[in-house]
């Protein structure tokens, strides 16, 4: 095993991801950030230098479990203090599982500003994957707005709230075309779609009769996506860094925070090129699908395919989404089966609410998460009880809550209490969806857990009931780090609290998290070994054992 060093200088810069110039959060002058590639058991060291003039920054390694290094999880207010402008922070962690991952900002809405890149962990040198392929293609999907995250955030906090709306463009590896409809994108003489470097149409050069492993990860701020290739099927082999029982499909749904590997064989007529498209699902799309050209070599790129781009399935065909999601099951080689019983079950009701009858928020068991200024990891380790609510949030919600109607009392409260787990607890979480503030509306939410993979025991309609117990899959549930809850439905997951640290569990939709859609899990923090002091240079952890806290003068 090796140590892989990276140096990341983060700064805003002018960039044209979709032929419209904006500012993006770049790393080392590029967008998306440089890919990280390592082998299992390598140590990854990333020195992050914050060149921003007025904002802190952190980087989270999405899907990396951070066993033994919870302070390197890169979550502001949870695992560390945001790195101040002009300062640097070195992340050091082991990658112990092969798979398709990515990294992204985890402070405010910096992910939506473009702070992300891919992170791929290969098997140990000399080891072979349990499936065969000739070449690899890596696609990192995101969605892009022409409004800045500052403007987006102010909108979300305003009364009435100004929603960010649908993205202007879907980006593939940071490039896309805005406002030039479908085929125009590939028409070199089109007036709308200039072929500039940063927004050139996405072309995948492939050779006929080869098998490609396409790694796809989604770091969208909002959109659920669907990826399909005309005339080709794909074999799904990996999800969130775990092998799945391989299954064939014409297209895949991918929610923010998820990743997949699919095998595609270029076995179609070699005289043609083929379209692939990536379109929006789960929300009424206002964004035109992103197109990719599978350019069968040696055909010219300019040769337009004779068959049209695959059509994205109807955005609200949830039955189709559910049947895809239900096909994702653990590979037979996966020997880690879930323990047969849970020792603790938490039911989390997802509701949209208001604060003081005004500001729109998302709440979990009627608490909308607001992060404290002192990072939890240090606060809990050192017993700084005044830094966050000591009352743990509710384990469940009222039995008679009607999930089919808007919340009868739309008002909620903000809070920052934590769920505490003893080492080894077997935790079930039932994520319960409900009606939002508007009648007959319930949204999809991709929930992501830090520090763990969890077993997805099942999905269901309506309110989870004891009758659903028997439907849970304990035989071959897939291991994932992100799972969706469907409108008006529930999702059940299980994990073992065997990774001491403080982990956020949240909706991976960036504005939803910003509006409070998350909870904090504190796991056997007493077992966390010494936290590097530089992770704790803010809030009360900065001074707790050095000087007494001097209260700030209060205005009269
Ligand atoms: Cu990819 Cu907490 O996030
Ligand atoms: Cu959400």
Write out the strand line-up for the largest beta sheet, numbering strands in chain order.
10-9-12-17-14-15
- Determine the fraction of residues in helical runs and give it as a percent range: under 10%
What is the top-level CATH class of the largest domain? Mainly Beta
Counting structural domains, the number is 3
Bound molecules: CU-O-CU linkage, copper (II) ion
Overall body shape: globular
The CATH architecture designation of the largest domain is Sandwich
- Strand content of the residues, in percent? 35-45%
Return the CATH topology of the largest domain. Answer: Immunoglobulin-like
Helix/strand-derived category reads mainly beta
Low-confidence stretches: 546-550
What can be said about the biggest beta sheet? 6 strands, mixed
Task: Give the number of helices.
Answer: 4
Mean pLDDT: 93
Distance between the termini: 61 Å
Query: Radius of gyration over alpha carbons?
Result: 23 Å
Number of strands: 32
- What is the CATH superfamily of the largest domain? Cupredoxins -  blue copper proteins
């Amino acid at each position: 095993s090796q140590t892989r060093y990276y140096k990341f200088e983060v700064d805003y810069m002018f960039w044209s991801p979709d032929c419209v110039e904006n500012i993006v959060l770049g790393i080392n002058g590029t967008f998306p950030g440089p890919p990280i590639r390592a082998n299992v058991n390598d140590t990854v060291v990333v020195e992050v230098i914050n060149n921003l003039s007025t904002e802190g920054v952190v980087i989270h390694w999405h899907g990396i479990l951070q066993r033994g290094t919870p302070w390197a999880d890169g979550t502001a207010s949870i695992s560390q203090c945001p790195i101040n402008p002009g300062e640097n922070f070195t992340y050091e962690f082991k990658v112990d599982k092969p798979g398709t991952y990515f990294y992204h900002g985890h402070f405010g809405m910096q992910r939506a500003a473009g702070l992300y890149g891919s992170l791929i962990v290969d098997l140990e040198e000399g080891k072979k994957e349990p499936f065969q392929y000739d070449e690899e293609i890596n696609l990192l999907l995101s969605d892009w707005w022409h409004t800045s995250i500052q403007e987006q955030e102010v909108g979300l906090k305003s009364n009435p709230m100004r929603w960010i709306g649908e993205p202007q463009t879907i980006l593939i590896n940071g490039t896309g075309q805005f406002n030039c409809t479908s085929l125009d994108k590939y028409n070199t003489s089109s007036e709308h779609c200039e072929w500039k470097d940063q927004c050139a149409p996405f072309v995948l050069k492939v050779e006929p009769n080869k098998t490609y492993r396409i790694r796809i990860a989604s770091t969208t701020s909002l959109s659920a996506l669907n990826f399909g290739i005309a005339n080709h099927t794909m074999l799904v082999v990996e999800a969130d860094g775990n092998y799945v029982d391989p299954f064939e499909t014409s297209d895949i749904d991918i929610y923010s925070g998820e990743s997949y590997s699919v095998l595609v064989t270029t076995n179609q007529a070699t005289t043609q090129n083929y379209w692939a498209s990536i379109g929006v699902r789960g929300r009424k799309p206002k964004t035109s699908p992103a197109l990719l050209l599978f350019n069968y070599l040696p055909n010219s790129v300019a040769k337009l395919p004779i068959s049209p781009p695959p059509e994205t399935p109807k955005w609200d065909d949830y039955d189709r989404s559910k049947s895809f999601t239900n096909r994702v099951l653990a590979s037979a080689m996966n020997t880690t089966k879930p323990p047969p019983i849970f020792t603790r079950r938490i039911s989390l009701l997802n509701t949209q609410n208001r604060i003081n009858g005004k500001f729109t928020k998302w709440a979990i068991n009627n608490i909308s998460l607001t992060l404290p200024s002192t990072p939890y990891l240090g606060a809990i380790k050192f017993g700084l009880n005044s830094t966050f609510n000591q009352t743990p949030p509710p384990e469940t919600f009222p039995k008679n809550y009607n999930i089919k109607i808007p919340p009868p009392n739309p008002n909620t409260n903000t809070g920052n209490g934590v769920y505490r787990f003893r080492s080894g607890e077997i935790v079930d979480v039932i994520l319960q969806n409900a009606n939002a503030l508007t009648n007959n509306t319930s949204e999809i939410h991709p929930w992501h857990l830090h520090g763990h993979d969890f077993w997805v025991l099942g999905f269901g309609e309506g309110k989870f009931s004891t009758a659903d117990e028997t439907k849970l899959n304990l035989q071959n549930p897939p291991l994932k780090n992100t799972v969706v809850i469907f409108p008006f439905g529930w999702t059940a997951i299980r994990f073992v609290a065997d990774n001491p640290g403080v982990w956020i569990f949240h909706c991976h939709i960036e504005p939803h998290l910003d509006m409070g859609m998350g909870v904090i899990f504190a796991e056997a923090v007493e077992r966390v070994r010494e936290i590097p002091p530089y992770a704790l240079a803010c809030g009360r952890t900065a001074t707790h054992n050095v000087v007494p806290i001097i209260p700030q003068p209060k205005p009269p």
